[in-house]
Each structure stands twice: as structure tokens, then as C-alpha cells.
Automatic annotation (TrEMBL):
Domain Ferritin/DPS span(s) in chain numbering: 19-154
Family note: Belongs to the Dps family.
Pfam families linked: Ferritin
Top-level taxon: Bacteria
Lineage: Bacteria, Bacillati, Actinomycetota, Actinomycetes, Streptosporangiales
GO function terms (MF aspect): ferric iron binding; oxidoreductase activity, acting on metal ions
Transmembrane segments: none
Name of the protein in its database record: DNA starvation/stationary phase protection protein
Organism name: Streptosporangium minutum
Length: 155
């Protein structure tokens, strides 16, 4: 069995691998939290939030796959196991049980905002070592910022 070799220098691969793994954890956790909110939201804006959360989950899952495949392409192994997410996530977590629509809006605004801040740090970190990965992270951030705006506008 042969390993996937990286087109990057070893020191650049390390920086990029760390950025990609962090992005993967953020995106997978976002997809799980989005579903948790989707299942438990209550209130006058239930229907619109329920549908909007599914769009966020779909985007997070799509972007997570892109990030994981980029990691493999540079010779790094992505780790999306539940135990890895649980031990490394920096994403704010939701309360349990039913969540009022206003609290869902506030929580998802905070969740998306925290992920966007870290994505922007990763964009900066990957500028020199791998512009290809940086482009992927820029595209993801643009999409997350759109979802952030649409959720935040409901405050």
C-alpha cells in the first residue's frame, strides 16, 4: 500500500493540514448543530428557520467533503470521527431540548460568527503555503458569511 504524497513542502503541508483539519471539525460540528436546532426549534418563525437550518446543514456537509478531499490530495488524513469532533471543537454549543426561535437565531449567529473568524485566520495562514487551499477556504467563508447574514437579519 502506498501513501498519498504531497505536492507541498513538508513545513507547508503541516500548516495547511492543520488549517484543513480545523475547518473540517468546524463544518462537521456546524452540520450537527444545525440539525439539532432544526429538530428542536419552536416559535412563530419555526417554519422559516426549520428550512433555513437545512440549507446551512447542506452547505456545511458539502464544504466538509471538499475540505476532507483537499486534505487527502495534499497527503494528509482528515479526521471526522465523533470523538475527534467532541475533543477538538471550538464551536459554541446549543442548549438541549426545545429552543425558542429567537434563541436559535442568536445561537446560530454566534456559531456561524465563531466559525467565520477561524476560517478567516485559516485563509491568512494558507496564503503563502498553499493558495489552492486558501481559495477553497475563501469560497467556504463567503458562503458561511451569506448564511450568517441571513440568520442574523432575523434578530
Amino acid at each position: 500500500m502506498s501513501a498519498i504524497t504531497s505536492p507541498l513542502k513538508p513545513e507547508d503541508k503541516k500548516v495547511v493540514a492543520v488549517a484543513l483539519q480545523g475547518a473540517l471539525v468546524d463544518l462537521l460540528d456546524l452540520s450537527l448543530l444545525g440539525k439539532q436546532a432544526h429538530w428542536n426549534v419552536i416559535g412563530h418563525n419555526f417554519r422559516s428557520l426549520h428550512l433555513q437550518l437545512d440549507k446551512i446543514v447542506s452547505a456545511a456537509r458539502k464544504h466538509a467533503d471538499t475540505v476532507a478531499e483537499r486534505a487527502v490530495a495534499i497527503g494528509s488524513n482528515p479526521d471526522g470521527r465523533a470523538s475527534t469532533l467532541a475533543s477538538t471543537t471550538e464551536v459554541p454549543q446549543l442548549e438541549t431540548g426545545y429552543i425558542n426561535d429567537g434563541k436559535v437565531v442568536a445561537a446560530m449567529t454566534d456559531i456561524l460568527g465563531s466559525i467565520i473568524r477561524r476560517m478567516r485566520e485559516r485563509i491568512t495562514a494558507t496564503d503563502e503555503p498553499d493558495p489552492v487551499t486558501q481559495d477553497i477556504l475563501i469560497e467556504i467563508t463567503q458562503d458561511l458569511e451569506k448564511h450568517h447574514w441571513m440568520i442574523e437579519a432575523q434578530r
